[in-house]
Write a structure and sequence with these properties.
With 333 residues, this protein is α/β, with parallel strands linked by helices. It has helices at residues 2-29, 31-46, 58-72, 82-85, 112-120, 135-139, 161-180, 185-190, 195-200, 204-207, 223-233, 253-263, 291-301, 321-326; strands spanning 51-55, 77-79, 98-102, 124-129, 142-145, 216-218, 237-241, 247-252, 284-286, 305-309, 315-320. α1 packs across α7.
Length: 333
Amino acid sequence: MISEDIANAREAVLIQREAIEKLGNSLEHNKSQAKAFSATIDELLSLKGRLIVTGMGKSGHIARKIAATFASTGTPAYFVHPAEASHGDLGMIMRNDGVLALSSSGETEELDGIISYTKRYKILLLAMTAQPKSTLARQADQLLLLPKTLEACPMGLTPTSSTTLALVYGDTLAVALLKRRNFTATQFHKFHPGGKLGQRLLRAENLMHKDKALPLVNIESSMCDALIEISSKRLGSAIVRDANNKVRGIITDGDIRRWILKSKNEVGTLATNVESVMTKKIHTISRNSSIAESIERMNTKNITALVVLETDKSVVGLLHLQDCLRAGQVWQK
């Protein structure tokens, strides 16, 4: 029985894989479809409003996911249920918006209200369907044609391969669009501040101590000033900077212990200039460095803090290992 189940599963996988290969081949070798794909990206780039994604039944579930993918990669998008649209939700679609409608047959009755609305107010209509002569395809400004394929269902009735194709095509559009936008990991993090994705994309500037919380002393300062700064900011160190806010060194707890042992019998020790005590070899990162990269740097150098620099090399923050650990990052030794 197990072997039969696995055979059925493999057959379903192979049928859907073949469908995806058909989609890839059609985009690569069919000039009209390649042109429609590129034109759709142009339309989405120039869209002044939002992208409304809609579909009924299984296509509706896929449409929701496509909308979520677009929204998380820099294109404002949301799902509108086609049946609800005819009962007031058409008001959610504005003149500057665009509509992406999914229907394998292209004849989904519930889409009629949205199609008519886009035509009446000259709203961009993108159609994703497997039927080039359907009502949806004929009314669309751009046709994203899905290749005809077998469903993985043995009866050929349950949407499987067709919905897989629609999902893959939606992801393909989103990926092509984010590449055209030069969408960066930093921008991606803005839409994914929580969870594992958010943690992986955190930057030094997100966790660093800055402004009034940043322990700073000037190069002309005394060790008395440094001790007060270290004690008040409670980070176990103080950054030494010059008049141009460029880092010159750092004073750590270890530096202080070594200084005390060396000068315990000297008079006027607290008046000692910080330059003679500080560690001149400073480990720094840019404010845009990832937390993963920062932890790796601390791990490699066997240190617990990094000075964070602006692009002009001026001091903007201090990143401490404990802040990374509190944010859920992993310290590997």
